[in-house]
Amino acid sequence: MSWDDFLFENPWWLIALLILPLVMWLRSRQPVSAILVPFAGAWWKPSLLPQPARMPAFLIMLGLGVFALALARPQRLETVSDPRQAGHEMMLAIDLSSSMLAEDFEIGGERISRLEVIKPVIKAFIDNRPNDRIGLVVFAGRAYTLAPPTFDHEWLGKQVEQLRIGLMEDGTAIGDGIGVALSRLEHVKLGPDGKPLPQKAEHGFIVLLSDGGNNKGLLKPKQSAAIAKSRGVTIYTIGAGKDGSAPYPIFDEMGAKIGYRRIIADLDEPALKDVAETTGGQYFRADNTEAVNASFKAIDQTERTQFKALVRRPHDMFLWFIAGGFVLVVWGGLLAWAAERKELAA
Questions:
Q1: What span, in angstroms and rounded, lies between the C-alpha atoms of 205 and 201?
Q2: How far apart are CA 141 and CA 216, in angstroms?
């Protein structure tokens, strides 16, 4: 076990070691023995050197110190590879602009909005990848992290169910959505100078779904795609909605639907295709419910790669320290008993 791991896992052992010399020094200033054990008073001297006459006291003291270390529960961290684990680190970037309310999809002959169509598909996609760390970014006029990469897919599914339009200012910031997702695919590691060094996550990719063209944000989709390519992150893009006009619901002041108006689709397919091709991904057009399901299923099959995952497993060393302390204390006691027998015999 490295000293860095030992110090990190067990900060109390250092305190225990610092207390022992302090106790010895305080006891040395008094006319009594530093440690009261049977027959040890005759061997106590102000010197701390382990002279033969005070070896029993020294061994017992050392054994008590080892016991203190055992209370800190030292552990040895072993890094092993687990070839059975398959998974990725991925981010879902979902468009929450107002146009996602357009009801140009149908289920069972009933109109349904673009957002309501993709929710169960995304949830099923998450549930089908139990070994992945999955995060969620939402964007409209701005981009935000709704959930960082996590293995808690049950909690993540609840966040997907709660997605709704109006969480942020309206617009379509595709470039910023990709940028925020890229920032979440980085692990922070401290360099020699103590400053954080971002490390790209292996096997990371992004799935972006949008129904419009980039009209807000600081980054253009082409700029974000270039950054993703430089970091080796693949982006899969999905264009939602049908061409032409789509029925858009009108709501009253109480939020009740009172009618429809027509809006024109402004999906920027060339930009989404360019993002996917630049990063080595694929573009999918989802203009109906079946196409949405097929898009996520295709991505699910494409990103199924077996790899060796490094796992750090702790091994408890508590019993080893207890055994060592016990041996030292018994050894010191036996030496003290032998010395006393020898003195009585003389």
A1: 9
A2: 5
Helices 289-302 and 114-127 pack at an angle, to 10 degrees, of: 30
Instruction: Determine the pLDDT at residue 196.
Output: 45
What number is the average pLDDT over the span 316-345?
A: 76
pTM, two decimal places? 0.61
CB 172 within 8 A of CB 213: yes
Average pLDDT of 21-30? 58
Contacts of 298 (CB under 8 A, 6+ apart): 282, 284
For the residues 131-156, what does the mean pLDDT come to? 91
Could you tell me which residue, 225 or 314, shows the higher pLDDT? 225
DSSP 267-318: --HHHHHHHHHHHT--EEEE-SHHHHHHHHHHHHHHT--B-PEEEEEEEE-H
Residue 189 has pLDDT above 50, yes or no: no
Token couple for 334: 């036996």
CB-CB contact of 122 with 92 (8 Å) = yes
Question: Above 50 in pLDDT, residue 21?
Answer: yes
Strand, coil or helix: what is 79?
strand
Residue 166, sorted as left (phi over 0), alpha (psi -120 to 50) or beta, turns out to be left
In 10 A of CB 78, how many CB atoms? 12
